[in-house]
Model the fold of this input.
Amino acid sequence: MNLREWIDIRRSNGRRNGLDYNFAFLDDVSKREIRRKILKAVAIPGYQVPFGSRELPIARGWGTGGLQITLSIVLPEDILKVIDQGCDGSVNAVNIKRFVNAVTGVRVTTDTGEATLVQTRHRIPEEPMTDRQILVFQVPYPEALREVEPSERVTRRMHAEADYSRMWLFLYEDIVKFDEITIGYRYPVTVNGRYIMDPSPIPRWDIPRLHMADTLFLFGAGREKRIYAIPPHTPVVPLEFEDYRFRVEDFKGRVCGRCGAADTYLDEVIDDVSGRRLYFCSDTGHCDKRCRP
Amino acid sequence: MLISHGEMTAQRTFRCLLESMSRPGRLRTLPFPPGDVQAPWAALLLVLESLLDQEVTFAVIGGNGSGDLEERIAERTRCPVAAVSLADYIIAAADCGPGEILQAKRGSLQYPDTSATIIFPVQAIPSQESRPPLIVLAGPGIRGEILLGPIEGFDFPQIEYLKALNSEFPLGVDAILVDGGGRILSIPRSTNLRVRES
Amino acid sequence: MGYVAVKGGTDAIENACRAFQLERVKKTSTVLGVEQIRDQLFFLVDRVMGEGSLYAPDLAALAIRQAAGDTLEAAFLLRAYRTTRPRLGYSIPRPSTQMRIVRRISAAFKDVPGGQVLGPTNDYTLRLLNFDLEDSPKITRTKLLHEILESGGSLEPLPDTFPRIIDILRRENLIATPERSEGDGKAFDVTRDSLLFPAPRSAALQAMARGETGGLLLLAYSNMRGYGNIHPTIGELRVGYMPLCIPHPSSGKIYRVGEVKVTEAEILARFGDKTDGPRFTVGYGLCFGHNEVKAISMAILDRSIQGGTGATPSEDAEFVLSHIDGIESMGFCNHWKLPHYVDFQSDLDRLRKAKEIHESQGMDRHQKK
Done:
């Protein structure tokens, strides 16, 4: 049989585009494995569970981990919001939304309050999330200790023994050099007093939102093949020293040039005409809502 | 897109399990397909179907009242049976021997997730406010404390065995209680569990 | 300029996809046929099948056309398609003595039982760029066949089976017994389970069989040049068709349902002091299609990660196996093009703060003078 005949036969069987999808794309075996791993992740807050991450039509490094979690939990009645750097319209967010909508039919929204399931790359929405919602994070580097140790075998042992001395030393050396901890995004946190966890490249601004939250947080790293979780009402504490405390970004009293908010994480934009700096809310959905009369 | 009925039920059931494990001690109701609630072991099988397959193993302890439970689970899920000390999923029926669950694997320090999950089929999980509250749960997923009344099929010795299994966090097992009425309640190893003197 | 419009995103993406498709068809050349790619760019098709981990020459050709020749993208298309296919069963392993040989050579001996079968190879060609643009296929095919058949030498049929050189050496007690890995002999499945370290050998071989040719070559080359000490000799290199055999789902009777072209390499490494008495150790490589560089590199790496101390990258199993998957590495490399402005903003804040501190400390020192 040649290729043309094979394609024609599949078309006449009513298969769309030569493919037949399960609900949410993933096959049953894959879904069950991810489900089992998600439950273990929730039971051991902050611990990275290895999983057999599947290949998807979206490239590795572009959110396949978060996507596999979303696809394993999504229901037709969910309302999905997808953001990238806080923005609903950004390239990555739009592509992922298209894909999930194509394989589930779920309604999508840009309104955090309306969403039941939010998948995010590198930000937590400004509006407080509730216990009716789940936030799924896309994670490029699941291992907080990778900064001090390239080998997975070694970092696994460090987590097993709660031997985090090298991480603390790394922070101490920062202070010696710069009189400050210079980590911006991916600021390491301790979860439930046990595991040091990488919160994904969210800014420090968002770290306090992880602590004792009402919402379930799920983290998926597709390429590195790890899932981890923070259940609601769980202590999440950034690593700090008594005399060098954790601090969020300082916008020096600036406000959003669009909605006037003084309490949101701001994107700095260079005006190409005057060269001066403009500031706008990174969370575009929130900014939109504030702008509506 | 071809969606099978069974597929949707499994997805809904899992969502219910996820909510349950994230908020231990809170009762959730499983999504039953119409007409299935009365069938024996229906709730238990619903939970197992969404999680078990050929890639993992299970064991049944107790359950001698309905001797074919192991067969029914194997048939529905095609999950292979293993010894209790090796099984990924253990169904611990109310009549299992004292301390039998202590054989469950607790994972390793490097891979605590490789431990067993124990599912306790029980008669009826009492709602939160029943008297007297004797089981106290606290920890991740729980705001403050949750108080539960005694649960038939999950008695105090069993609670002590579970505590013993989970005494060296992160080693331990994660428990899911399933009652005949299709309600579930989860107790992950991260939960602080104690019995209050009445 | 002002605020970036949120709503432009979808249109921009759709136009970008269209513009890419337009790139391929905007000129006046005849559209490439899938059959042409499959038949004439066979090394490319074989490479993509291997890295895509799906034996399907027509689909690989289709992917190559869709990806405009980008091998990483084409392999990615195959991998993504593979994920949607249900797993029907498992074929039964067959020894490579059952291979229908196309090419079979050994560098270890001048002549070997069965002979040195050179097969179709460009190893001996002079790399002179050929400027003949049009060569009528019928004439070339006929002419070449005529030349092959008319050339000197006898035309004996090939033997049905060629003994493996390694087996001969093993019978003479010159090959170290391989270490039996833990487990029940079941092969690991890297497409189902996450690779953890130390990795069983079946997992390592699978990961390499799916690995990107250039990446494997880089690491093997580093070993050959001295960042490692394998000092390989090719015991045997085979290219040919392995029978694909599956058991009938009910009766269990074994049926041959087709054949799969593979390249297999076995290298002999210098004996070290780890073996039981002085013996050669073996490195093994196998991949889909005709891809000799990949099979040889794989065999060298198989040996180096099994026997190495981890002192150099090619001897460190975690290093090798974590970095050879083309789909993972390509995806992550490309992901840097995604917006990172929120992350960068956080970095800017840190830098500005650090500068403030630095400057204020500078001023303090200045004042103290």
